[in-house]
Design a protein that fits this description.
Length: about 475
């Protein structure tokens, strides 16, 4: 029984002399590799005692295949890169928007040494950090002023705290939304010290509903882009222009939480209901807020843009200090905004590139991928590889109604179930997150970066070759 297997486990000192251990020791240290082997052997013994390994398991081969995984795992305690093969482009669980190469380079440069984060080079004196992305935003959005905070939730919080504190904020019942991660507009309003005045019904709110709720305590009208859900059918809400006029008439501030913060027209990609930030500014909204890492394709950030007088107040709010961003975020955001400014956003920003890809593009890409994969697989491999149409999702609370037609790669394996394959990919050294549909493993290349195709290919090959159960 399992005792034979247990007896076959070699000593750590012996295993440390294997060429693989030696090469890993060179990249780290002998002590570190010793720790990894200790963890691996502990786990191995447990699996043997639980009868999870067949009697004829080649222990040395298994140890050699798993040691690099332990080496990697013990280094990456938490955050690590993964391959997103789900087809969901702005996956909040998977870190939302990948950055453009220019943004990465900018982070590198600024992180490497010193920068003018709070230093005015023209004057040779103290400067202020909150101006770094402002000029670009002014040009791109047509706004008078802008500031950056940690994320859009922080932006909404800060705006309400400054502009609606001790007063009332009017919001339509159709916009009292929860974004996910338990970010609920009503809760944020409560925290900010503003009183929420709900008007209308879930599906219909008229301009007159807003107007009749206005009283001497009213400070702002808040419009929220419903982002991750849609009310369809018998619905009504006033146009933005009508809200602008109403706010003007009663001397109120109109604030719009745009959520995604798109700066380009997405209609050519089939996405009809993502308003652009510049359209809201042009319509006369006083203050808009949106995320940096949703459709904009930049780093995590919250952008607050609008009229100078309100932005000046927001800048002076004590919360600003707590919600401000670091130099790396400024570097990445400014560089991403520059790509919009010079007209290179569609070519360079990964999220926009992925959005543009058509079903045909993805068919060709998937065919090519499968051709390369098949060329490298042994003749009698256990995989059945095919393709079918399907859809990718934008995600991140953007345009929920807009599925993007795509081509899916379908993987079946006579040696293991779709679930087992999914686990193996997820536990790959560079973890791969895939979908399971109708007991098949599904890969959507739309969300896979070009550089990730090779490691993805290797991991799929490994699915056909493995002989032992996963770690
Ligand atoms: C996503 C979203 C938020 C929260 O933005 P974060 O950048 O995740 O903090 C707030 N409001 C709306 C409408 C959103 O879509």
């Amino acid at each position: 029984m399992s005792k034979t297997l247990l007896r076959q486990i070699k000593s750590i000192d012996y295993l440390l002399e294997l060429p693989l251990s030696q090469s890993l020791s060179q990249k780290s240290s002998r002590e570190f590799v010793r720790e990894c082997l200790r963890d691996l052997l502990d786990n191995l013994r447990q699996r043997i005692l639980a009868s999870q390994l067949p009697e004829n398991t080649e222990l040395d081969a298994l140890i050699e295949s798993e040691l690099p995984i332990y080496w990697q795992k013990n280094l990456y305690s938490n955050l690590q890169p993964i391959i997103n093969a789900t087809g969901t482009l702005l996956h909040t669980n998977l870190g939302r928007a990948p950055l453009a190469p220019q943004a990465l380079e900018a982070i590198n440069k600024v992180a490497k040494g010193y920068s003018n984060l709070e230093y005015n080079l023209a004057k040779g004196a103290r400067g202020s950090r909150d101006e770094h992305s402002e000029e670009l935003l002014k040009v791109l959005l047509g706004c008078e002023a802008a500031v950056i905070v940690n994320n859009n939730a922080a932006a909404v919080m800060l705006v309400l705290d400054e502009l609606a504190q001790d007063g009332e904020a009017i919001i339509s019942r159709g916009e009292l939304i929860e974004i996910g991660g338990a970010f609920r507009i009503p809760d944020v309003m409560k925290k900010s010290g503003a009183t929420l005045r709900e008007v209308g019904t879930t599906n219909r709110t008229r301009l007159s509903d807003y107007e009749s709720a206005i009283n001497e305590n009213t400070k702002i009208i808040l419009r929220v882009h419903p982002s991750n859900y849609r009310i369809i059918g018998f619905t009504e809400k006033p146009s933005l222009i009508d809200l602008v006029k109403l706010a003007k008439k009663y001397n109120l501030i109109l604030v719009e939480d745009l959520g995604s913060g798109c700066l380009v027209d997405l209609r050519d990609c089939g996405i009809k209901d993502e308003p652009t930030a510049q359209a809201s500014i042009l319509a006369g909204v006083d203050v808009v807020t949106f995320s940096g890492d949703k459709m904009l394709g930049g780093p995590q950030a919250g952008i607050i843009a609008g009229k100078k007088a309100y932005l000046a107040r927001i800048r002076r709010n004590p919360l600003m200090r707590a919600l401000r961003v670091d130099k790396l975020s400024y570097a990445a955001l400014s560089e991403t905004l520059k790509l919009y400014r010079i007209g290179k956003a569609w070519q360079q920003i990964p999220i926009l590139r992925a959005l543009q890809a058509t079903e045909k593009d993805l068919l060709l890409r998937s065919q090519n991928f499968l051709r390369r994969l098949k060329r490298r697989l042994p003749k009698d491999h256990s995989l059945k590889l095919s393709m079918r149409g399907g859809s990718s999702v934008i995600g991140g609370g953007s345009a929920p109604e807009t599925p993007l037609p795509t081509t899916l790669i379908v993987i079946e394996n006579s040696k293991m179930s779709a679930n087992e394959m999914e686990i193996r990919l997820r536990k790959n050294i560079l973890p791969i997150i895939a979908r399971i549909e109708e007991n098949n493993l599904i890969i959507d290349l739309r969300s896979v970066l070009d550089d990730d195709e090779e490691p993805l290919l290797k991991a799929i090959m490994a699915l056909a070759l493995v002989t032992f159960p996963s770690v």
